[in-house]
Write a structure and sequence with these properties.
The protein is built from 16 helices and 16 strands. It is α/β, with parallel strands linked by helices. The chain has 2 domains: 16-287 and 384-448, TIM Barrel, CATH 3.20.20.30; 304-379, no CATH class. It has an 8-stranded parallel beta barrel with strand order 1-2-5-6-11-12-13-16, surrounded by 8 helices. A 3-stranded antiparallel sheet has the order 4-3-14. Strands 7-8 form a two-stranded antiparallel ribbon.
């Protein structure tokens, strides 16, 4: 009997696709001569133009606010620096026409007026293609680069983030006239009296004045959330337009999808007003067997012996440089003291119970006879699709039609040109299936995502403030 879900009662969902230009990461195969610079603008331009040629919804940039360190030295096994997100996205707005431009911007070490002004400007410059992945910073190490470094307790960082988002929304909505005309004769913007007037007074912000950027094409950027925690799911259900996820199986994806979307009704929102978009890698081959062999080779390139030891140190919180990556795991347990080996790494915080995680890793290594390197290759893998173009197209479609996601944020292992193979081989098959656009139908990112136009809010209203989950540098919590 067929296990395919019954899809005769509802129309086939359209797949949403985005492209992630990986920043600080262990995805890019740096040893491959095809890997390009992560500093030169040409890399970002080529990547964006491939995504737009394939009619993707948006390009996504993560953001790091400090160079990471391990054992007291700069962690040099991946990208150690990258240009400012706003600068890159603004430049990309000039060389693309329809592609959405999404960036991770931190709410802990910025100010509402500054961030609102930058996003409103980007939305104008791009004609309505801006998106904001809202995150907070959790560690004092990153905060040392800023005046406020590390001064807030964890619960207060949540509260500040919530107030920050409320404040930026107040600023975005401060130009609340239905029509704003540009008087070409005088260069003046015409609106109802007191355009841009705002007032925000709470425990974190005491600001009022006049916002100097007229209402942008989308009203505000599309709001993204990266979070798997209880608070992250609630924020997404209440406020976000899209949520990233990191579930590696179809069953886990379906459970997450149902949980988040079931929360939306209590906030007066329809399920289709939130898109669930897991990150995913892909490996293409002429046949499924060829792709599987290639995938094994790529994972060994991504996780060198040195990289495996560095990843293990992040859990063990010890210097393990004397250990053989092709040997067994350490017999000693992780150090539960203050994290000093790896600083500025999201993965340190992700292991909430180091002893339990170490126990699970030991059991896995013993069961499968894994070395340190083989173990790290498995436990650091993300959602991935491996096979021929036809197999990958069918699998992506199955996940979306089965409500395991609404689409995917693709992370190629070669940048900037690694996306091209997917664009040329998989996208046409999705178009043949009728589940992916052949041309852009709208001009704004909200239209690409199938989101409704935003209602206008009064900047002087006392609407309930949204909540935000705390996530490190755009990585799901």
């Amino acid at each position: 009997m067929s296990t395919e879900p019954d899809r005769t009662s509802k129309p086939r969902k359209q797949i949403h696709l985005a492209a992630h230009f990986p920043g600080v990461n262990n995805t890019t195969v740096w040893s491959d001569p095809r890997s390009g610079s992560h500093i030169r603008f040409d890399s970002f331009r080529r990547f964006a133009q491939i995504a737009e040629r394939a009619k993707f919804d948006f390009l996504f940039l993560a953001e790091g606010l400090r160079l990471r360190e391990q054992n007291g030295e700069i962690y040099d096994l991946d990208v150690v620096g990258r240009p400012d997100t706003f600068t890159v996205l603004a430049a990309l707005a000039a060389v693309t026409d329809r592609l959405g431009l999404a960036g991770t911007i931190n709410s802990t070490f910025n100010e509402p007026y500054e961030v609102a002004r930058q996003f409103a400007s980007l939305d104008h410059l791009s004609a309505g293609r801006a998106a904001w992945n809202v995150v907070t910073s959790w560690d004092a190490f990153t905060g040392e680069n800023f005046r406020r470094g590390g001064y807030l307790e964890q619960d207060q960082r949540y509260e500040r983030a919530r107030s920050f988002l409320h404040a930026t929304q107040t600023l975005f909505d401060s130009w609340h006239g239905d029509e704003i005309a540009d008087d070409k004769a005088t260069g003046a913007f015409l609106a109802e009296p007191e355009p841009g007037r705002f007032s925000v007074h709470d425990a974190f912000f005491d600001i009022e004045g006049q916002f100097n950027v007229p209402r942008s094409p989308q009203g505000r950027p599309v709001i993204f959330q990266a979070g798997d925690s209880e608070q992250g799911r609630e924020f997404a259900a209440a406020e976000a337009d899209a949520i990233f996820s990191r579930h590696g199986t179809k069953d886990a994806g379906q459970a997450f999808y149902a949980d988040v979307k079931d929360r939306m009704a209590k906030y007066g929102r329809d399920r289709d007003q939130l898109k669930v978009l897991p990150a995913a890698t892909f490996v293409l081959g002429e046949t499924d067997a060829e792709a599987q062999e290639l995938a094994k080779e790529i994972r060994h390139q991504q996780v060198s012996g040195q990289t495996a030891i560095r990843f293990l140190e992040q859990l063990w919180n010890r210097d393990l440089s004397s250990y053989d990556p092709d040997g067994p795991l350490p017999e000693i347990d992780p150090d539960l003291g203050e994290h000093t080996v790896a600083r500025g790494r999201a993965s340190v915080r992700m292991h909430r119970d180091p002893l339990e995680t170490a126990r699970e890793w030991r059991e896995l290594a013993e069961r499968k006879n894994y070395s340190i390197r083989e173990l790290i290759i498995e436990v650091t893998g993300r959602q991935n699709f491996i096979g021929s173009a036809r197999t990958i197209a069918d699998t992506l479609d199955d996940y979306v039609q089965s409500d395991a996601s609404d689409g995917f944020i693709l992370v190629p292992h070669i940048t900037p040109d690694g996306l091209g193979e997917f664009a040329d081989k998989v996208v046409p098959l999705l178009q043949e299936k009728g589940v992916f656009r052949t041309e852009y139908e709208g001009t704004t990112l909200r239209e690409h995502l199938g989101l409704r136009p935003l209602p206008r809010r009064d900047a002087r209203s006392t609407a309930a403030e949204p909540t935000v989950s705390q996530t490190p540098e755009g990585v799901a919590a």
